[in-house]
Design a protein that fits this description.
- This protein is an alpha/beta fold.
- The chain has 2 domains: 124 residues, Enolase-like, domain 1 (2-Layer Sandwich), CATH 3.30.390.10; 284 residues, Alpha-Beta Barrel (TIM Barrel).
- The strands form 3 sheets. The protein has an 8-stranded mixed barrel with strand order 4-5-6-9-10-11-12-13, surrounded by 7 helices. It has a 3-stranded antiparallel beta sheet with strand order 1-2-3. A two-stranded antiparallel sheet has the order 7-8.
- Helix 5 packs across helix 6 and helix 8 runs parallel beside helix 9.
- The longest helix is centred in the middle third of the chain and has 21 residues.
- The protein is globular, with a radius of gyration of 21 Å.
- Its cofactor is Mg(2+).
Length: 423
């Protein structure tokens, strides 16, 4: 196997994400004639502790969301500094960019600029070595297919409806293969659409692909999903489970805005809950429904709430930190010290390099936390997270709804990987 493949050139340009918001795509050219290409998601509502995207702020272009500054960082700065480096030395490349940035949150060069180069280098190295990206990252050990957590109903900031929780997902926990599980999810999703229409409810989609019905509350959404699973011929708890992304930080901030700090204001339903109320609600849902996981069931700064919730439910379901951890080892270490949550969402653009992403995954697995590889709400057709999920043998992946092309591309990539692993 080759031990040195030089970076010959790096070039970035501005593209659009799935919502028409600018983001960056980068190409890395190697001296043996190979190319690696990667684009990163655009973020419209970043967690307060995640790495900083570099955007233009020019209101005459894309309402200030352009990324020409990030493109310039890659083309006029990083390209010069990285040319000649060994493209198969991923850690050296990433450490070099982290050093050039010199900030704790990549606010100088921008996490979007840095990550696009980091991932493009990985793709270039894999192509130069003639292996799949999952094989390059995971070696001979990367061979386990994840279970998809498929978004079917949207709420919260993602939808103009009556639901407070951000995502309601289905998990085909009883499927014998990724291919079978994805087929099951498609059937349940279509059945849910029929149920909504038969009930006179909206079967239109949010901008992230989930259905957006106006219901009496979040629990009704769970009941509808259970009905769709059963009507499709599957059994809850055996074939399917339900996963929820509450994005509780939104309700926490809403309560704070009206002077009720430490509580949760479900503004769409005009309900104020204490953290004890929240835990009781989650416990009731877990008792009545086949709940696999609750993501961000408490706000990222409500550590007391996380402690209460973990004490009550930590041995029953997966309590997943997204904004709580933001794919950051330091945030995860704090969670480990406090003994809160038991699972972590992994989003490479929350931290900014592939090396740091893999480091956080390793720390999580070493301490018994379940890493869930995840997309963002503003995605591109890039399928890198599919390869990462297989490379690290992640149990689960969140790649979005089956109604969105940028999500389906990731699922299709996983179907292809599963075929490659089979043969």
């Amino acid at each position: 196997m080759k031990s040195y493949i030089g970076i010959e050139d790096i070039f970035a340009h501005e593209i659009l994400d799935s919502r028409g918001i600018p983001t960056i795509e980068t190409e890395v050219y190697t001296d043996d004639g190979n190319i690696g290409r990667a684009s990163v998601p655009a973020v419209t509502s970043p967690g307060q502790y995640e790495a900083h995207e570099l955007r233009d702020g020019d209101q005459t272009r894309y309402m200030g969301n352009g990324v020409l500054k990030a493109v310039k960082v890659v083309n006029e700065h990083l390209a010069e500094k990285l040319t000649g480096m060994n493209v198969i030395d991923q850690e050296a490349i990433d450490r070099k960019m982290i050093s050039l940035d010199g900030t704790s949150n990549k606010s100088k060069l921008g996490s979007n600029a840095i990550l696009s180069v980091s991932l493009a280098c990985a793709h270039a190295a894999a192509n130069a070595l003639g292996v799949g990206l999952y094989q390059y990252i995971g070696g001979i050990g990367g061979k386990k297919m994840p279970v998809p957590l498929v978004n079917v109903i949207s709420g919260g900031r993602h939808a103009d409806n009556s639901l407070s929780f951000q995502e309601f997902m289905i998990a085909p926990i009883g499927a014998e293969s990724f291919k079978q599980g994805l087929m099951w999810c498609a059937q349940v999703s279509h059945t849910l659409k029929e149920l909504l229409r038969d009930s006179g409810l909206s079967a239109s989609f949010s901008d992230v692909g989930g259905y957006v019905p106006n219901l009496s509350g979040d629990e009704e959404a769970i009941r509808l999903i259970v009905r769709a699973i059963q009507k499709s011929g599957y059994r809850t708890g055996e074939h399917f489970a339900v996963a929820i992304d509450a994005a509780a930080g939104e309700m926490y901030n809403e309560a704070k805005a009206v002077g009720e700090e430490g509580q949760y204001y479900f503004w769409k339903q005009n309900r104020m809950l204490t953290r004890e109320d929240m835990v009781k609600m989650w416990n009731d849902y877990c008792r009545k429904y086949p709940i696999l996981s609750i993501e961000d069931g408490m706000a990222e700064d409500d550590f007391e709430g996380w402690e209460v919730m973990t004490d009550k439910l930590g041995d029953k379901i997966k309590l997943v930190g997204d904004n709580l951890f933001v794919t950051d080892k330091l945030r995860l270490k704090k969670g480990l010290d406090l003994k809160i949550a038991n699972s972590i969402i992994i989003k490479p653009n929350q931290i900014g390099t592939l090396t740091e992403t893999l480091g956080t995954i390793e720390l999580a697995k070493t301490n018994g936390y379940t890493p869930i590889i995840s997309c963002r709400s503003g995605e591109t057709g890039d399928t890198t997270i599919a390869d990462i999920a297989v490379a690290v043998n992640a149990k689960y992946i969140k790649a979005g709804a089956l109604s969105r092309g940028e999500s389906v591309q990731k699922y299709n990539r996983l179907l292809k990987i599963e075929e490659e692993l089979r043969y």
